[in-house]
């Protein structure tokens, strides 16, 4: 059985710069796959090749086992980072335009969007614009949803509601590929793919992604000073509340730096996070 959407060795070069380097991935029916990575990791370029919007330098992008065509792309629902809406059209006009492109009836509007049906998209708050883009992507009943940062800039309650809709689509057999910067959202995915510098560097569960990364928490009364001196010593540090977290530490060096600064602190091992794994990849 073919994957709904698949990349085989996808590569994209712009002159001497390689934006995507030999990426292979797949999304099956009924699963939500999270594509993670820092800005510039190659996520959006990979998506554009998968959708047939950009021609790969090498490799293949496949929809149901074949290169994407005008006809097969009708099976896709896509929400780009820029949302793909027309700011000079109203909410209902955007829906009608997208429906006509896919040969279906415009979807019905609910809630706040229904109240704004005659409002120009340019006048909508970002959260409602993202909701509208999602409705436009769903109204033709796609088999595959590709969502590029669909909840960026959306307030928490609206993010939860959008994710409820994403999961409901997967429950009815739609394959979903989604990029996100929110790690609590990444944990709602069935599988995770981590990109760095254009390459796919890890995949699987959260535990699979962080495998091989260590982290410790430094608890100090003067946590701001602890952060400052450890950062100045060249360590990879993050803050979690008032705990200073150090990623992949040389513990002897860590203790020496604390002692030299005369800073009293306790150091405990903690579970690493995906963000910390991404930090180390970026430093490398």
Question: What can you tell me about this protein's structure?
Answer:
- This protein is of the alpha/beta class.
- It folds into two domains: 5-210, Rossmann fold, CATH 3.40.50; 215-283, 2-Layer Sandwich (Alpha-Beta Plaits).
- The protein is built from ten helices and 13 strands.
- The strands form three sheets. Strands 5-6-7-3-8-9 form a six-stranded mixed sheet, sandwiched between helices. Strands 11-12-10-13 form a four-stranded antiparallel sheet. A three-stranded antiparallel sheet has the order 2-1-4.
- A hairpin with a 2-residue loop joins strand 8 (191-196) and strand 9.
- Helix 2 (91-102) runs parallel beside helix 4 (126-138).
- The radius of gyration is 22 Å and the shape is globular.
- The model has no long low-confidence stretch (mean pLDDT 87).
SS class: alpha/beta
Q: Whole-Å distance between the termini?
A: 38 Å
Instruction: Please give the domain count.
Output: 2
CATH class of the largest domain: Alpha Beta
% residues in beta strands: 25-35%
Order of helices and strands: EEEHEEHHHEHEHEEHEHEEHEH
Can you tell me the residue ranges where pLDDT is under 50 for at least 5 consecutive residues? none
CATH second-level architecture of the largest domain: 3-Layer(aba) Sandwich
CATH topology-level name of the largest domain:
Rossmann fold
Write the layout of secondary structure elements.
Layout: E1 5-14, E2 17-27, E3 32-36, H1 43-50, E4 58-63, E5 76-79, H2 91-102, H3 111-115, H4 126-138, E6 144-148, H5 156-171, E7 175-179, H6 183-186, E8 191-196, E9 199-204, H7 206-210, E10 215-220, H8 223-232, E11 236-240, E12 243-247, H9 251-260, E13 265-270, H10 274-283
Helix pairs in contact: 2-4
